[in-house]
Prior knowledge:
- The chain is mainly alpha-helical.
- The protein has helices spanning 15-29, 34-40, 47-55, 71-87, 115-124; strands at 4-7, 10-13, 103-105, 126-128.
Amino acid sequence: xxxxxxINGKAVIDDTEAGIIVSIFNGYISGLSMKAAAANAGxxxxxxxxxxILMRDIYIGTDYYPAIISRETFAKANGRRLHxxxxxxxxxxYTAPPIHKAFELAATETHFDDPAEQAEYxxxxxxxxV
Length: 130
């Protein structure tokens, strides 16, 4: 996940990427377009990539991911994003599928010598928790 790195199974903030995320949010709130906010933060990103960053609520913190931005900053940026979408008639154009954040893995009972078969088997044991 952009803005974080995983160390010993724990998500920790990547200071360089977190600074870019904060700069993107602040630039967008100040009135820049999505691409311009990214460029102002020193990165080249497409509109869709910036939009995904702006919409990712993990940046306000979860049980696993530490907060990079405040709830207020997240709310301001997404309020502006929805307002701009309404102005251009894009509000209902696309609804992203839900992002599942909780999973359960059943106990493995079979072992395959082929790593691809083993991976396929283990993935089949994952259940999404709603």
